[in-house]
Amino acid sequence: MKPTELLQLADQFGCPLYVYDAAKIEAQYKRLTDAFSKVEDLRINYAVKALSNVTILKLFKKLGSGLDTVSIQEVQLGLHAGFSPDKIIYTPNGVSFEEIEMAAELGVQINIDNLSVLEHFGAKHPKVPVCIRINPHVMAGGNSNISVGHIDSKFGISIHQMPHILRIVENTGMHINGIHMHTGSDILDIEVFLYAAEILFEAASHFKELDFLDFGSGFKVPYKKDDIETNVEEFGKKLSKRFNEFKKEYGRPLALAFEPGKFLVSEAGHFLAKVNVVKQTTSTVFAGIDSGFNHLIRPMFYGSQHQIENISNPKGKERFYTVVGYICETDTFASNRRIAEIHEGDVLCFKNAGAYCFSMSSNYNSRFKPAEVLWHEGKGILIRERETLADILKNQIAIDL
Ligand SMILES: *Cc1c(COP(=O)(O)O)cnc(C)c1O
User: Which residue spans traverse the membrane (predicted)?
Assistant: First the structure.
């Protein structure tokens, strides 16, 4: 999107504001499906938690995507958006047994990542097909909070516990229809991923009635200038070839599934915030915006570096700034960052604000969550209203004591 278009939306809808470019989401979706065009049955299940606005989910439905969900609420959102249950996979971790049963009741694909749950579920619902999430113990992923496939991870059933998995399946007579892994976000190295894939193939060979193999996600997108990104095209070529070979050996139609979040929506998102104050101190120039980690927590939580552009003065002379929020504790978005000269009232644009930005926002400091706008065919469409004080007070019970 052009700075002028973004600036116009900031004007029209106010700041802070999230803007998502529908065309970019579509382009990323197409990039992925093109990369795997040699796979007969490819299933893309968009990871709802990255950005869960219902209109975004409807956009994915239109594209032919399924959904990856991690909570019963995400399942319900998906159904609300019009997805049929068989297009939704539910991959919980550490949720109650009742929640898993509820999801099964709704008819979505259950993915289990715990031996005791597998045993309990298989004994009680032997007729419900289940996918098993394995942990291949492959070290992948960037920040340790999003690297979930390593040996100490709480996710998945260890690949070394395969004999135990098989015993449970045999004893309960349950039907395993898929094998899944998700080693974490930010996979830099295709070879590492392909190595993990071999482990998945080996695991899959123990089951005779699989319908799909789910390779999770982990596609990395560039955040900073010169950032490495997953070479999806090369990855697609290599994994497709290997998958098709395996399928032949396996002797049964098999779908290949992915569940990307970040890859599909990160770059489509722009977060627009207005500069309230420019403050010179002994060490730096602060630009203080009308937002904080209540709206965008990734820089503080993951140390992620979102590019920041001054769309009010895009051609201005570049100077060094520390961009901070208004929260009453340290909330630094960027330190010592080169940005076109900032004046109070300017609108800054944070890039890569599609994934894990709005969906991780909160009402901390009793602030309103921002509005969300979808940029679609040259027009900005409001897809979430800015909150009001009524939203903050909703569910609160004021008692005079
Ligand atoms: C979060 C998550 C994803 C999506 O990860 P991205 O890095 O956003 O692509 C996929 N699968 C599962 C099970 C997840 O928890």
Answer: none
Positions marked catalytic: 328
CATH topology for 22-264 is TIM Barrel (3.20.20)
The structure tokens listed for 393 are: 């007070």
> Alpha carbon 266 to chain centroid distance?
8
Inter-residue long-range contacts of 361-365, CB under 8 Å, 24+ positions, other chains counted = 361/294, 361/295, 361/296, 361/297, 362/294, 362/297, 363/294, 363/387, 363/391, 363/392, 364/292, 364/293, 364/294, 364/327, 365/292, 365/294, 365/326, 365/327, 365/328
Q: Which atom of ligand 1 is nearest to the CA of 70?
A: 15
Q: Tell whether ligand 1 has an atom less than 6 A from the beta carbon of residue 68.
A: yes
What is the third-level CATH fold of 266-380?
A: Lyase, Ornithine Decarboxylase; Chain A, domain 1 (2.40.37)
pLDDT tens-digit map of 280-319:
999 999 999 999 999 999 999 999 999 999 999 999 999 9
Q: Is the CB–ligand 1 distance for residue 289 below 6 Å? A: no
Cα(317) to centroid(ligand 1), Å: 39
Number of C-alpha atoms within 13 angstroms, CB side, residue 45?
33
Q: Is residue 11 over pLDDT 70?
A: yes
Q: What residues contact 271, with CB distance under 8 A and at least 6 apart?
A: 16, 17, 18, 19, 291, 295, 296, 306, 349, 350, 353, 357, 370
Q: What pLDDT score was predicted for residue 140? A: 54
pLDDT score at 164 = 97
* Gap between the Cα atoms of 319 and 336, Å rounded: 9
Q: Which of 49, 356, 359 most suits a substitution to test ligand 1, by most atoms within 8 Å of the C-beta?
A: 49
Q: Which pLDDT belongs to residue 152?
A: 66
